[in-house]
Structure formats: structure tokens, C-alpha cells
């Protein structure tokens, strides 16, 4: 929202702060100022100039004009504007003026020395007309430079009153200790019967609809001061009537609308929900299909405006308009907001109404408009009295504000008189029914939504005393130990382990594309209904696609690397929120080599995470090397996968990948570790070599031997595997060292022999030969 | 004169001479075998002992022992000399140029956001706060309604939301964890909640649709603005490792009342204004405020008995400030040339 400094100054008596200082004060006390910009500083140098003569220059479309430029005296300028003629009064810009990005100089044009320039409204920045040089009505050039204070709209969300200059002027007056002026004189509202009837179907949707009828209207361009004011705050000048409605909106935050009275059908204006199937051609030239969730203003023939959003095109003000109906109404904030978002149509009016405007404001808007219309459309006459439909709402309950409570909230005491002065400066009523307790009456423009409870008053007092006046203090609280977040603590341990092992942490996006999901065989993903790009419309149910991208991207820069991510997998559930499970995904990439090293490195990492983790051969997924994949298990439970990317996924080099469900891992880790007594009795060891088929997993053989060893087996250690002569083709020999013993004594060599024989016989029983 | 005297003297002289002349350690062993061995020169003398008179035998035995001793000592000393020379030679041969560059370290690294998050978690844990988690996919109720942002509230504009086809959404801030924390733990409560959040925004050097926040909340009896400022100053002093000047100004967030924007005095220019602070001398850092009583009430806490403060810290932004990262896209870009630096 743009605020004109000049405008604010007109509304506050004795505002001393310069624009930059005022911007800073507003930032600290009211709302965030995004910046202060000078508006058309060159206007200070512009003077009204009467064109004394305008002669054509031979061989050129330009004219040589001699002007009487007031304080600059008589000057000769070359002017190309088609409307440049003797007798007109226009705007003269002297040499040396910086006008936007150019500097006006004395220069020779078409053989004539041009001493300055005659300017259009567009060139001067006072309106958007560049059809010719300005035509001034009087012999004074009124517009002067201004400063525009830009306030962040987000910080005005809760303040309907600050969507007009008068509201901000009230803040400025309170901050500066100056006096606020009231631009609207309600006494101007005429008495008498209203020439139009207003029927409101639902007062919730339209709490108030006020209107006046004017006749003998002249529609023409606004005077320059009005055009310039609107230009400064970013509004486009249309014509004098529309400009007045916009001026009142920018001043009092009351959006208004003028209908051409002769275009209205019947003498009644309705405010009602749209009927199904109704359409409206709006002022912006677009046609909108309406539904009963939209509120419309209608006449006997149908909708003439979308309430609080935009007027209709058919009843718009035009050059032939002579009678107008001037609407100043109030609409339900949430309904306007829903309509405006449904129609994707945000207007200056809808932005204001959706903040919950004050129904009391409609009459101020009309009163102010009467005086302005009289200025810009001489001869205009009111017809009859005010049409005003509304149901008075009960006045908001005054708020009880115990001062002790206020001080406890702020963390400092404030003089009682100071609290009263602050609240009164922003027009809150203050009574003190019992000592130390204020009863605060909230003004109508703050009570629509903004202020309802005593906590809201803490802000009003706090911002005015300045939060900088509060001394930071630690609270006095019980020294309790906070509950530990075991999951996060565990993730932190995993991160430390991974970095100690040389892995670099990456963060990947939660989004995947349809294409990626299909490539990885991921179905049934949670879907985004309004994705930012087509490639980001699904939520990942695995970290692997992200890690895959990391591998491909980084393989362009490195011959080998290690990386990991800890992130959430998001799995759709039949109902309720999706299930989110934290996973660790890690990859080891090497451009050279046969890939064994990376896989075993990751296996070691997995076993560092949980020493009881085992790898079990299993079916390969689409993106896995079919002969290099395994499930990671603890006990009988699968906790993850270890695999190499399928060569069609990673074409140069090899990438080993580990994917572990950290939730499952944490759950399966032993909570309390108990000490095992150190064995003091000697144990006996012997080696066994089992002959098996080539692809029989070593882990399987080890499990068989372990089972056969039973309680006597203290340890089993893999020694080596061997294939080749003299073994038969297609077989291998796998050697282990087995350590056996009893808990309470040393086994005799006979007893060891019995155990050994039992194991050998057991293996032979399963048709496995042993080399003994 | 016993002829053995001559044999012994001869053997001794010869042995000492050869020990002195030994070129390698193996020569010494040859001498030992030749002189002291079972078939050595001195062993021959012992064989004649039987034929000798007892006195002569005693004298001869003594002499023999003395010579053996002498030769053995000479052998040992020469052996030690060889060992010491060998060690010296080995040590010399093992000369290493330690000014050569070390092999590159195989060093992993944590993500910059992890680094800063860990630091802040530790700080708050030390002040009695618990760390809570919430899901990335949230309900509309947790993300908006329970935070005093009903469906048609204009404040929803400020948070462009990714909606899911099932009606849920990707959380736009970590604030829903406040709601979860209050409902799960009840008052009194001190909690922080770091995590990933999402906004439906076009990505450029300073905007991301995925970033990290850290929510903080305290609910207790008589929590005041003074307490809030205390925690914020403590937090920022710890993050920036120096005293920082902060200011609070009004800011509007429906879940707090009063609400603030907290600015820190620009750490680059210290106040007079520079490009980093857009010439204002201040950098907007975090929104905060006293918890709106409606928010407490909606999570089952009686606002007449309890009140609190809440804040939301942009972890991504903080990491960028800490490490002078000028392009937000690097953080989720997965480029090890960037990530290996931390």
C-alpha cells in the first residue's frame, strides 16, 4: 500500500517528521515500511506557461513556441505536440531539470535553440496522458513533488483502517503527538426521501448499503491535482467521477462505486447472493459466471456489480452519463475473499473488504464524496436524501484491562496516565471503574476483527511505549529436565558415524515426477494438487531417486565419492495423514573398479550402525543390479537394502547403495547392554572346510555350522573360500575356524572330537562334503 | 710346560684376531664354532684332562675357562657393534621427507543446515527445552485453523500452500508442531521444533519452495515480552558468537498477540547502512510474539492460567548468513563441490 506523504500531512496538523523519518516511525510503531521514494521531485521546477505564439518550423513537424513561463520569464522552445497552439496554458520545464532519467538541456532542434521543454502529463508523471502537452485550466501549475511511503501489505492484514490515508494519518498523529483532521463532514449528507430503494437479502453478507443519487453530472477528466494524487499512490485516473470514488477509497479505506443511474432498470437496488447461472460483464471487460456463493448488487434486470469486488460494465460511467447512483456499502470480509479468489480477481476494493471494513464508514465516504464531486463536476446536484439499509450491530463490549496484568505481559510497568494517553491518542475510550483496572472502548474501525480481547490492547500499549524500553529478563521457572527426543538423538549419532566414515551429507527435495516414480517402480504416491512444476507433483516414498540424481550429477565432477541423506519417506495410508518414516540412504560411487569395494564398505557401515545386521540374498528391484542385491535383516525383520545400481541407471562407474529404515533400526537396537563375563577357561579351536556349489552364500553355510555347533560353539570365523583344482568344476571350498568350549570346564580332546564329528556328520547329512 | 698351554694361547690369539677382523656377523659364528664349539680347538684340550695330574688339571681348567670367557666377551661385544651398526644403517635408510604433502583426508561433512540446527538444538536443550517433531504432510487444522488462521483469513495469502489431493497439505511453517506439542505435553512447556517446510514459490537465488525453520515455544505462568526478548538475545548471541543488538517492532501473525518482527542490527555495517541491510542498518530475522489466547484455548490450555511466547527462526536463512551463501538453491542441490566445504 502506497501512502502519499503530502496527503498524510494534509490530514495531520503539525506533522514535523520528514518522509524518511515518518517511514521509520511507522515501522517501529505500526506496520513495516518497505521504503520511501520521492515522487516526481522535478515538479518543484515546473511552471505554468502561456503559449504566446506557436509557429511551424519548415521541414519539420515541430513548432517553435514562445511562452511566458511565469517565474522563468519569456522562453523559446521547440515543441512537437499536436495540441501546441497560441493562447493555451501548459507546463514548462526549464533546462537543468532532471526529469526521470533524462536531464533537460538547452539544445538546438531543427535549427532553433530550444530553451527547456513543454511537457505532457505522462512526461511529468502526473497522469498517463501522452497525447499532447498538458492543458492547464488556470494559470498556475499546482502539482508539487511528493514522497511515497510504501507499507508492506502483509503487515496491514489485520488493520482495515490502515487501507486508507486517514487511518495511517491517525497513527502518525498518535506517534508524533500531533492532531488528526477529519476530512468528512457528515452534516453534508442530505435529509429527505431517498430516490432509490435498497433491499438487502442477507445482512450477514451485506451489513450496510448506503447510496446517494446525483444529477446534472458532467463526466470529464479530473483536475490535475486529483490525477496527480491518484498517480502518486499508484491509481490510474479514469474520469472525474470514478476518480472521486477512488480518492475516497484511498483516503478513508471505503471502496465506492458509481453507477450510471439511467442505465439501471427499476428503482430498487438489491444486495443478494447471485442466482445460479447468472453472469456479469465486469468493468475490466471480462465476463464472469456467478454462483450463489457470490454476492451481487443487482437491479430489476440482474447483477450490476459483484459485491465488494468489481462493478458491471453495462452501468459504467461514460461520457454521456448525467445521473449517477453512488454506492458506499459494506460487505462480509470472508465472502468477498472467497469470491475474489474463486474468480481470480483481486481488486483495490476486494483487498480492502476482505480485511473487514467498518460499516460506520459508508456515510463518511458519501459525505466526503459530495464535497469532492462538487469540486470536480461543477453544477452537480443531489437528488433527494440518503438511501441507507443496515441493521445496527450491538456495540462491541468494552474490554476490561487490569493494569497489573498488562505490566506482567509486557514485563515492565508503565505509568497509568501514559497507558491512558496512548489509548486515547488512537481514539480508544478509557474509563477506570475500579483503581488499577481500565475499561476500554474500542473504536468502530478497530473492532470489526482486529481488537476484541485484552491481549490485543497489550500490543497497542507495547508498540507505543516501544519494545526497546523493555529490559530482557530470564524467566523464573522450574528446573525440570526436558523429555529427550530419542529419535533425533539417534539420527545425530548416525550422522556422526556417517561423516566419520567419510560420507558427505546431502538434502534432497521431497518432490518427484511421474516419470521418476515410474522408472523406480514407485506407485501410489501422495500427489500435490497444485504443483509448482510438472516434475514436482508427487511426494517421495523413497530417498533412492534423490540419491540416484546426486550420483549422476556428482559423477560429472568426481571419480569417486561417498554421500548420504537422512530424510522422510512419505507413504500413503488408507486414511489420515500419510506415514512418514525416517530413512538413511548412502551411496559409494567409483568410476573405476568392479564395485565390490563400495558394497562391502557399505555393509561395514551398516554393521557399524547395528552389529547384528545381516545380509540376506533376495529379489532385485527394478533399479538394482540383479546379482548384487540383498536385504538387511536384524533377527527376522527387514530393516533395509544393500545393492548396486543397475548398470542402466548408472552407466559410467558403479554406485553401491545402502537404504535403511532408521525407525526400525532404532527400535531393534538393544536398549541396555549387559556385560558378559570374560571367559577364563581355555577353549579349543579347529578348522573345517565345506565343499558347496559355487553360489551357495557363505552366510548360509555359517548359519548351518552355527546351528550344528549348538551351545558348545563359542565362535565361528570365516577364513577363506576357494574354487579351482583339485575341486570339481562348479564347487568351492569355504573354510571356517570354530572355537568350542564348555562354560564350566575345559573340554578334553575326546570331547572336542565328538563335537567336531557331530558337526561334520550334520553337514554330510545335508549332503555337504567336508575337507578334513 | 704343558704343550696345551701353547695350544690355548694360540687359539686365544687367533680367535681375538679373527673377531677383530670379522667383516659380517656370520664370521663371528664361525669363530665361535672353531674355537669354542664341541669340536673346536679348546674342546681338544679338555680331552687331555684325564691324563693330567690333579694340580695340572686344575690349573689347566682355570686357564681354559678364562680364555673361553675372554673369547665370548669379545664375540658379544663385536656382535653388539654389528647390531648397532645395522640399526644405524636401517634408521638412515628409512629417511622420510615429512615436508611431502599428506594424502588427501577422507573426510565426510554435515550439511550446513544440520550444523546450525544442531547448535541451536543444543543451546535450547541446555535451557530446558525439549525438541519435538511433526510430520511434513500436515492437516489444514494443524497448519492453519488451530493457529488462528481460519479458511477465509487473508493471512493465508502470505503462505502459498502446496495442497495435496487428499485435502492435506505440505506444512508451510513449523508452527503446527506448537499445536502438537501443546496437545501432547500440555503446560508448562518449553519446546523447539526444527524441520522442513514448503511454500509454493518459484525458485531463484533467494527463494526456495523447500526450506528449514526452527519453531520455539514456551508456555508457563506469566510469560512476558521481557522473557521473549531474553531468549531471543541469548539465541542470537550464541548463533553469531558475539553480542547483537536487537529490536522488536509490530508484526502481524494471527497465532501471536502481540506479534513482533525481530530485527538485528546489521552485522556487516553495524548500523549506518550497507547493501546487505538495504541501507537500513537492520536485518529482519525472525517473527515472534506472545501466544494468542485463542491458540492456547484451541489446544486445550486455559489462557487465564497460562500464557507463552513463540518464535519462528529461518534455519536456511541463518545458514546462508553464517556461511555467506549467496544462492539458496545450493542447499538442496546435492553438489558435493559445495557440500564438501562444511
At the fourth level of CATH, the homologous superfamily of the largest domain in chain B is Bira Bifunctional Protein, Domain 2
Largest sheet of chain A: 7 strands, mixed
Mean pLDDT of chain A: 94
Identify the biggest protein-protein contact and residues per side.
A-B, 92 and 83 residues
Number of strands of chain A: 41
* CATH class group of the largest domain in chain B: Alpha Beta
Which tags fit this structure?
A: 772 residues; alpha+beta; B: 342 residues; BirA Bifunctional Protein, domain 2; 11 helices; 9 strands; rod-shaped
Short recap of the structure:
Chain A has 19 helices and 41 strands.
Q: Can you offer a commentary on this structure?
A:
The complex is a heterodimer of chains A (772) and B (342). Chain A has 19 helices and 41 strands. Chain A is of the alpha+beta class. In chain A, the strands form 12 sheets. Chain A has a 7-stranded mixed β-sheet with strand order 29-32-33-37-36-35-34, with helices on both faces. The model of chain A has no long low-confidence stretch (mean pLDDT 94). Chain B has 342 residues and is an alpha+beta fold. Chain B has 2 domains: 3-93; 113-339, Bira Bifunctional Protein, Domain 2 (BirA Bifunctional Protein, domain 2, 2-Layer Sandwich). Helix content of chain B is 42%, strand content 18%. Chain B has helices at residues 3-21, 25-36, 41-47, 54-93, 112-126, 140-143, 176-185, 225-240, 293-298, 315-323, 336-339, and strands at residues 130-131, 137-138, 169-170, 189-198, 210-220, 246-250, 256-265, 282-291, 307-314. Chain B has a 7-stranded mixed β-sheet with strand order 1-4-5-9-8-7-6, with helices on both faces. In chain B, strand 6 (246-250) and strand 7 form a beta hairpin. In chain B, helix 1 (3-21) runs parallel beside helix 4 (54-93), helix 2 packs antiparallel against helix 4 (54-93) and helix 5 (112-126) packs across helix 10 (315-323). The radius of gyration of chain B is 44 Å and the shape is rod-shaped. The mean pLDDT of chain B is 90. Classes of the chains: A alpha+beta (772), B alpha+beta (342). The interface between A and B is large, with 92 and 83 residues.
